[in-house]
Amino acid sequence: MIKRVRSWLNRGDSQPELQLAADNIPEHVAIIMDGNGRWAKKRGMPRIIGHQNGMKAVKRAAIAADDLGIKILTLYAFSTENWKRPKEEVEFLMKLPQEFLAIELEELIDKNVRVTMMGHPEDLPSHTLEAMKEAVARTADNDGMVLNFALNYGSRKELTRCIQEMGQDIHRGSLKPEDITEEMIGSRLLSGSLPDPDLLIRTSGELRLSNFMLWQLAYSELWFTDILWPEFTGAHLQEAVAEYQHRTRRYGGLT
Ligand code: FPP
């Protein structure tokens, strides 16, 4: 079945309609939202204005993902390494989740979206954590798209914690080393029961993973674009999905 998508925003009439196969929409899309700072710099504005506009792109991406039938959208909003940034920038970034949720939570609830958080909660300021907890609690019974915010997330820390916890279980006698499986490791990571991403998108032309979902991305399709995150629209998500649909996923096997 073909899903015809006439674009939103900046896909002009002169551009052909994208045809997407409705039966091959990636279930889980993860995005490294990069380029906010450069977007602002190009306009002679402070970096935080880039982040503010990045927040608007979050809304566009979420609407577009939901419209396309993507079941899980994971957004890398703050990494365990981002604390190295200037204090004012970190403080600003930590205010964005609550600002976003103050504006959007009612609509997310209406649209049956389930908000989740993937990250290490302990270092987050209480105002950020409380806003996330409220959104998670108020959308917990929704069974539509999962909007998963990776907040204070770092893959190496996630894996280190997981190994430490398994070591403790072995020490206590509740786990045998030979019983450790890939599925068990996956389920003990912060992504928990979420399936691995089918498609990873990174904006801004950088070609790296930046400590994002290193275990979970083992067989994900990667799509990189030079577009800076604040410029990202639904049309870009469609392009990424169209490209995904041309890939053959072999998982190390043969077609
Ligand atoms: C990387 O761009 C972006 C971030 C570290 C922050 C991403 C955050 C958002 C897009 C907003 C999040 C919104 C919500 C609702 C949680 P950069 O600043 O490193 O850009 P640069 O590489 O051009 O400097």
Automatic annotation (TrEMBL):
Active site, per annotation: 34, 82 (proton acceptor)
Q: Name one GO cellular component term.
A: cytosol
**What is one Gene Ontology biological process annotated in the Swiss-Prot or TrEMBL record?**
polyprenol biosynthetic process
> Which amino acid positions bind Mg(2+), per UniProt?
34, 221
Q: Which PROSITE patterns match?
A: UPP_SYNTHASE
Instruction: Give the protein's cofactors.
Output: Mg(2+)
Name the family.
Belongs to the UPP synthase family.
Which PANTHER family does this entry report, sorted A to Z?
DEHYDRODOLICHYL DIPHOSPHATE SYNTHASE 2, DEHYDRODOLICHYL DIPHOSPHATE SYNTHASE FAMILY MEMBER
What name does this protein carry? Isoprenyl transferase
Cite the source lineage.
Answer: Bacteria, Bacillati, Bacillota, Bacilli, Bacillales
